[in-house]
Every structure is written in structure tokens, then in C-alpha cells.
Design goal:
Layout (H helix, E strand, L loop, with lengths): L13 E5 L28 H14 L3 E5 L9 H9 L6 E6 L4 H11 L3 E5 L5 H8 L4 H14 L5 E6 L8 H10 L3 E6 L15 H8 L5 E4 L9 E5 L6 E4 L12 E4 L4 E3 L8 E2 L1 H5 L4 H13 L18 H4 L2
Parallel strand pairs: 1-2, 1-10, 2-3, 3-4, 4-5, 5-6, 6-9
Antiparallel strand pairs: 7-8, 8-9, 10-11, 11-12
Helix pairs in contact: 1-2, 1-9, 2-3, 3-5
Iron/sulfur cluster binds next to loops.
Length: 326
């Protein structure tokens, strides 16, 4: 066998990099209203350090890289980082997850710097509700960001919707219609219990989402080209866009987990939902060679747990998603 494998013989080829713990929104399911305690600037990896970790990872077999956060677009000069990473031979897919607020102004330069595609998180199509869910954002900024991203070719632009009962679950059909009328690629995600808050009362299992969408006709299974993550894709009759479902709670997809996460302060996380971390920043700042970094990366991979236990009612504690790149 060639390539990178963990102790459960899962191939590992995907690195998610949190470039900042800062964010310009305060989504109700992700952050408290007052925000979270921020890392100090010195603790956050520099672009050169992120480049060094990525290059070492690609040398081992990582081929897909995603920038996330916090909100990646609030970090100054992010386009420079994209340019640096896109010069690394061996990366076949360089993408970003963003809340879209600043996307319209950066989409073109990101594309020119080598970014291939974006996922935009958007939980409602109603302005007033958007302000309530994000506590401060303007829906129109995100919609503009999506349009510009599509125009400049950051395709497929995928729209991530965290579905929450009595918050936005009455919009399932509206989002799904956009896959027909506007060719959107929409992914519905089950609400995960994080930051010590549970999801009792807000969880809408994917089975229930599908039942509600059945008013729009048959959902035909579909193979998406970009990405091979945990979503299962479908298409409505006559749609050029797709509907994806992600079931972190009701049906864990750990058996296919192919990822590692790098936190903004330089810790490698074998699993989003476990607090285990391997410190790369210390090694980097002590002058570690590429081989020494690769040794630490291998160590992180070999300690990937078999699965998480959200479906058994265990809420994630520890660092917030905004620090580890949800
Ligand atoms: N700020 C960027 C954004 O919102 O796209 C990137 C970071 S955000 C933490 C990454 C993703 O995590 C978003 O799509 C967000 O909806 C998702 N997320 C955060 N908290 C979640 C939760 N409790 N359950 C499910 N998804 C969550
Ligand atoms: Fe910020 Fe993304 Fe968390 Fe919303 S989900 S608060 S946009 S990091």
C-alpha cells in the first residue's frame, strides 16, 4: 500500500487548516454572543509556518487542502497564503469554507491566486432571520459573495446549511428549490452539540429532512465530482444543482474519515471531536526539519480514533469549532 493510512487502514489525504480563530459573525450554534477568548497574535501560525506544515504533509501524501477558521477572510493577506499553498506541487484540490460576508470583494483575487472552490455557510434566505442566527450579519453580503464566487469560477460553490428545528427547518424546501431554479449545490447538515450546548430540541435528523423534501419529488442519488467528503448527494428532477446531506449525529461517517486538522495555533488534531492534539508550533519554532515535522504528522495520523460518539449523546467539550476549524 502506498500513501498515508491510519491504524484503521483509512487513507488520509485531506488537511483542513484553521487560519484564524477570529470571526466577523457570532452564529448561535457556534459562538456565544460575547465571542470566545481569542488566541494572542504570537500564538497564531504565520503564513510561512502554515506553508511549512502543508508542504511536509503533501510530501507524505496529503493532496487536498481546505482553509477554514474562524472566518478565513478576516485574516489579512489571505490571498498571499493561497498563492503560497497553490505553488505546492501535489495539491489537487485547494478550497475554503467561509461565511461569505467578505467573499464578493476577495473572490477574484482568491481565484487568481489558485483557490479552486468555496463552500459558503448560509442557514437562512431571510434577512431578519439571518441577523438573528448570525447576531450581526447582512444576508445580502453573502448572496453577493455567492454570485461573485460563481462568476469568477470558484465552482462548484456549495452552500452549507445547519438545519435547526424551530430556527430554520421551515426553509428546507426553499433551499432545495434553489437547486432547481438557480443551480445551487446545497448541503444540509445536522446540528451538532458543541461548546457544552446540547442539540436537544434542535436536531432534525436527515431522515426527517428527506421526508419533508419529498413534496418536491424524487431525490435521485448523484455522484459529485469535487470532494469526497461525508455528504451523500441527490438531485431533484430537472435540477442542475444538487442536494447533499451530512449526518454527523445520526449516522457517523468516521469509517471514511480521511482528514487531519491544523488549528490556528499550530496543533494537529487527529479528530474534530476529540481533544487530542500534537504540537507542531513548538517544533516549528525550535527549527524542526521537514523530516521531523513529518514524524509528528505521522504520529497524529496513527493516533486518529476509530470514531466519535455524538450519536450516543456525548456533546463535544473543549475548544470551540471556531478555533479548530469546524
Ligand atoms: N466561518 C466559516 C464558516 O462559517 O463557514 C468557517 C468556519 S465554521 C466553524 C465551519 C462550519 O462549521 C460552518 O459551515 C458551520 O456552519 C459549521 N458549524 C459550526 N458549528 C456547528 C454545529 N454546532 N453543528 C453543525 N455545524 C456547525
Ligand atoms: Fe463564525 Fe463560521 Fe462560527 Fe459562524 S460558523 S460564528 S461564521 S466561525
Amino acid at each position: 500500500m502506498t500513501g498515508l493510512f491510519d491504524s484503521f487502514q483509512r487513507p488520509i489525504n485531506y488537511l483542513r487548516i484553521s487560519v484564524t480563530d477570529r470571526c466577523n459573525l457570532r452564529c448561535i450554534y457556534c459562538m456565544p454572543e460575547e465571542g470566545v477568548k481569542l488566541m494572542s497574535h504570537e500564538d497564531i501560525l504565520t503564513y510561512e509556518e502554515i506553508y511549512a506544515v502543508t508542504k511536509a504533509s503533501v510530501g507524505l501524501g496529503i493532496s487536498r487542502v481546505r482553509l477554514t477558521g474562524g472566518e478565513p477572510l478576516v485574516r489579512l493577506g489571505l490571498t498571499d497564503l493561497v498563492k503560497m499553498l497553490s505553488s505546492i506541487e501535489g495539491i489537487t484540490d485547494l478550497s475554503m469554507t467561509t461565511n461569505g460576508i467578505l467573499l464578493a470583494q476577495h473572490a477574484r483575487s482568491l481565484r487568481e491566486a489558485g483557490l479552486k472552490r468555496v463552500n459558503v455557510s448560509l442557514d437562512t434566505l431571510r434577512s431578519e432571520r439571518f441577523r438573528r442566527i448570525t447576531r450581526c450579519g447582512e444576508l445580502e453580503d453573502v448572496l453577493r459573495g455567492i454570485r461573485v464566487a460563481q462568476e469568477v469560477g470558484l465552482n462548484p460553490v456549495k452552500i452549507n446549511v445547519v438545519v435547526m428545528a424551530a430556527v430554520n427547518d421551515d426553509e428546507l424546501v426553499d433551499f432545495a428549490r434553489r437547486t432547481v431554479n438557480e443551480g445551487w449545490h446545497v448541503r444540509f447538515i445536522e446540528h451538532m452539540p458543541v461548546n457544552g450546548k446540547d442539540n436537544a430540541g434542535t436536531l432534525v435528523p436527515v431522515k426527517e429532512m428527506k421526508r419533508r423534501l419529498s413534496v418536491l419529488g424524487n431525490l435521485e442519488p448523484w455522484k459529485m465530482e469535487a470532494g469526497n467528503g461525508p455528504a451523500k448527494y441527490f438531485r431533484l428532477d430537472g435540477a442542475s444543482g444538487t442536494i447533499g446531506f451530512i449526518t454527523p449525529v445520526t449516522e457517523h461517517f468516521c469509517y471514511g474519515c480521511n482528514r487531519l486538522r491544523l488549528t490556528a495555533d499550530g496543533k494537529l488534531r487527529p479528530c474534530l471531536l476529540s481533544e487530542e492534539e500534537i504540537d507542531l508550533r513548538g517544533a516549528l519554532r525550535a527549527g524542526a526539519s521537514t523530516e521531523a515535522l513529518q514524524e509528528l504528522i505521522r504520529k497524529a495520523i496513527s493516533s486518529k480514533p476509530e470514531r466519535h460518539h455524538l450519536d450516543e449523546g456525548t456533546a463535544k467539550k473543549g475548544r470551540p469549532f471556531s478555533q479548530v476549524g469546524g
